[in-house]
Write a structure and sequence with these properties.
10-stranded mixed sheet; alpha/beta; 283 residues; Rossmann fold
């Protein structure tokens, strides 16, 4: 039986991207002991009279039927995984955050679309809003990404003030499974020796914290020529090359003393990466 706070929330709408999120949840459940909580939201007014009629009960029954025929089928091979379906009404964004808080969830898993059709679907239109504001880590699946295991966490580190918070969140996630490895990576452009020295000092401190936590880890500084690839492309390529499973990022712009950190780094990587992205809103 999972610890009562080991809850994962998976919003669903029976679309292709929400099925991908369910598959991601299945992989996570095979790596750490969790309870899978599925949330379907009727996006209607809070006081809609339709939800006091027979039509409401019919709609509820249809959701349960779809859930049993599709979601449960996807999870059949996992064995005895604790799971529950919640059906609520209101604004999708509000209900997701409220349910995550009430469950004391350790993670939200959501599907999202490519950059071209990001606003065209029920969940896709809410994913970025959730990622920007959720105090709970959000694991997102795009059209290109796949998740086959939950072991290698890529942790990009710069000189921002949020680096410590991001590290603590990664360590908290690693404690759920002793096999999880945190791969710390810093990127510097055009062999800026001053920046390399500062990043090197920060990596020493980061490694010290991780070693004290007894979590498996690696650390690397990548030196790149300015203008060939964006920071998002470099991190995405690195994650793929070392067989990374998840890239962990802060949702706010990474701020540093170098002008080479692009804005909306998390969104860029979500759009292009073959490795899923887990975002964290700074506290």
């Amino acid at each position: 039986m999972p610890h009562p706070t080991n809850n994962i929330l998976i919003p669903i709408d029976f679309s292709e991207q929400s099925f991908r999120a369910v598959k991601y949840a299945a992989v996570v459940a095979q790596s750490i002991s969790v309870r899978l909580n599925f949330l379907y939201v009727f996006e209607v007014g809070e006081t809609s009279p339709a939800f006091r009629t027979k039509q409401h009960q019919t709609a509820m029954n249809q959701v349960h039927k779809k859930f049993k025929s599709s979601i449960i089928t996807l999870l059949e091979n996992l064995g005895n995984i604790n799971q529950e379906l919640f059906i609520e009404q209101g604004k999708v964004y509000d209900r997701i955050l409220e349910k995550a808080a009430s469950l004391n969830a350790i993670m939200i898993i959501m599907g999202c679309n490519s950059a071209d059709d990001f606003k065209n679907r029920f969940l896709g239109s809410n994913t970025l809003r959730i990622m920007r504001s959720s105090p709970v880590p959000v694991l997102a699946s795009n059209h290109y990404s796949t998740l086959v295991k939950f072991k290698n966490i890529i942790l990009p580190v710069d000189l921002s003030k949020d680096a410590k918070d991001k590290l603590n969140r990664a360590l908290a996630m690693a404690k759920f499974n002793p096999e999880i490895i945190i791969h710390i990576v810093s990127v510097v452009f055009d062999a800026d020796e001053f920046l390399i020295n500062r990043l090197g000092q920060q990596l020493v401190e980061v490694k010290r914290v991780i070693e004290n936590s007894k979590v498996k880890h690696t650390a690397e500084i990548i030196k790149c020529a300015l203008g060939y690839e964006s920071l998002g492309e470099i991190i995405s390529d690195y994650a793929r090359k070392i067989d990374g499973d998840v890239i962990m990022l802060m949702t706010q712009q990474e701020i540093s003393n170098t002008p080479y950190f692009v804005s909306s780094l998390a969104q860029e990587i979500i759009n292009i990466s073959e490795v899923p992205v887990m975002t964290i809103a700074p506290i």
